Amino acid sequence: MSLMNRHGLFVVEIINPEYINMIRTIREKLAIFLWIVVAAFIATIIFDWGMGGFKGKQDVRSQGFIAKINGEDIKYTELKNIEENYIKNSDQKDMSGVKAAELRQKAWTDFVKMIVIRQELARQNIVVSKEQVYDEILSNPIPELKSSEQFMTDGVFDQLKYENFIKNPNPQYEQFYIAIQSAYEQRMPGTLLESRVGNSMYMSEFELLNLYRESNLKVMVKWLKAETNSFMPEDSLITDKEIEEYFKTNPYEFPKQLEQRNFDYVMFSTAPTAKDSALVLDDVEYAMTQLKNGIPFEEVARNHSEDASAQNGGDLGFFGKGKMVPEFEEAAFKAPVGEIVGPVKSKFGYHIIKVTDQKKEKKELVEVKASHILIKFKTYQSTYDDAQYAAVNFRDELSMLDSEDKDAYKKTAEKLGHKILEAPFTGKTDRTNELGIVPGLGDFLFGSAEGTVSPIMVTNAGFVILKIKEIKPEREKNLDEAKKSIIYKLRQKKGLEIAFNKIDGLKAAVTDTLSMNSIAAENKLKTGTSGKFAVDGYIDNVGVDRMMYEIALGLEKGQISKPFKGAQGAYIIYLIEKDVFDQAKYDAEKEAFKSKHETNLQRQMIQEWLDGLIKKAEIIDYRPLYR
């Protein structure tokens, strides 16, 4: 038996039979729990796998390595286990090639995080004692255990029952207890690391009070606006000297142009073919034959229909006109009750329809109740297989040519009759306009050298093989590239100054809300009344304007503000209403409010820290060798 007591000693005691069914249930759930752990954030994503492996100069694939991260060789089996469990535990019913590839890419991303964090744990020498693990198991049961009925009394989790289960383990379920212990051992170092990173986050009393006021106190105002856009000068009035000066003094507004890459690609399409269309009709005919042979409509629908109504025997319930696609509606409203009609072709596929009831008003048919069997237009497995075979054949032919031949990709495409297409330059992303989502695209493009040919990759349109064509390295933006945006910024700046001067010249005439209306009409300005809004609340015809909120918060009811510059222009506002700060309410809510916002800030800090670790990590990706 491997469950420890708080002193690190293993204990064995026979458990009551009433726990056996509960243990079976929890054991089934535990595998899912352990792989949910993999995907969770810091506190739940750290695993302590032994690395081992060969350190020689043999081929990395023969050694079984999938990556080298910060100089550490990572075994392929570690990633493979996570990939398989992500797919196994996915709630996706349609596990097409792209969805499976997306899950594998997610597994890789999370796996890299785990390795980098594990390395950071080692660097900071964070370890957890056996006593700490045992105490944590007792005091913080995992959700799967805490929600189990066997640990509840009158529907509420019973800590004593749980402790008895932990302190008196059944040797028959040794592996189960080992798994629980392992889960905590894997989770706890991450929790300590999270605390180390996030505990430096602290909100002062002043910051807390301001945040509370901004989140809870709302205001309502009448506003008079001179809109920036109405006063912006023409482009020609912005001088080259002003443009150059702005470019020099505001470098933070012109971040570097990040590295970009483009690529050639050959697509092996999985779009439906004439053969697929014929197979769809075969499926329709098969369903019709079953109905003619007397098999109940509901049974045929459950077995063959390809939409959500299949589980209900195809039942769509009652529907009126305009609720279904025209072809379906026309057939359903014409069919007598009890008759099977079709197949009816729509944009979704072929429908076999059975009307089961009708509703009439003044002898006019207004609703029908119908069931249907839908056979969708789709690509059949044989077409997927043909496309995949063509992609594999392309890779095989390419591998036979000299690896130093820069034209090998082109020669292979020409020999096999495939067209080479070109994608424009892109940043590190798995999505392009040409291909849609390609899981792993960004990692391949930015982890490989110019001229590298990809493994077979999966898209919604088919299989694709890429070749990196050109690399544009990261660089500073030049003045010509920034000129257009600078001109617009300078026009805005000058327009706001003119708008402010306009409002400032009218401030003496603003005495109440009625005067705002007449001033706006006479000077072609805008005015309006807000609803009640907080600091980040939306204001009709204004948008979000934190400055307006701050100014309003400092006014008393009926008071008029000085002119100020806001998000869309220059304003004068009249305070109609303002919530009153309730000190007693603040005192009652303060700790919960503080805890919530400090937690959010800690999470943000931890995420930024983790992003920094990943960005600095030196990662060599060997996945293409396994495809």
Note down, in words, how this protein is organized.
This protein has four domains: 17-198 and 619-626, no CATH class; 218-255 and 479-578, no CATH class; 260-271 and 381-472, Chitinase A, domain 3 (Roll), CATH 3.10.50; 274-376, Chitinase A, domain 3. Helices cover 46% and strands 19% of the residues. The chain contains 20 helices and 21 strands. Strand 14 (457-459) and strand 15 form a beta hairpin. The longest helix has 34 residues, at 583-616. Mean pLDDT is 85; it is low at 1-58.
How much helicity do the residues have?
40-55%
Category by helix and strand content:
alpha+beta
How far is the N terminus from the C terminus?
42 Å
Mean pLDDT: 85
How much strand content do the residues show? 15-25%
pLDDT < 50 stretches: 1-58
Q: Domain count, please report it.
A: 4
Tell me the Rg in angstroms.
Answer: 33 Å
Largest sheet: 4 strands, antiparallel
Number of helices: 20
Shape: extended
Q: How many beta-strand segments?
A: 21
Strand order of the largest sheet: 16-5-20-19
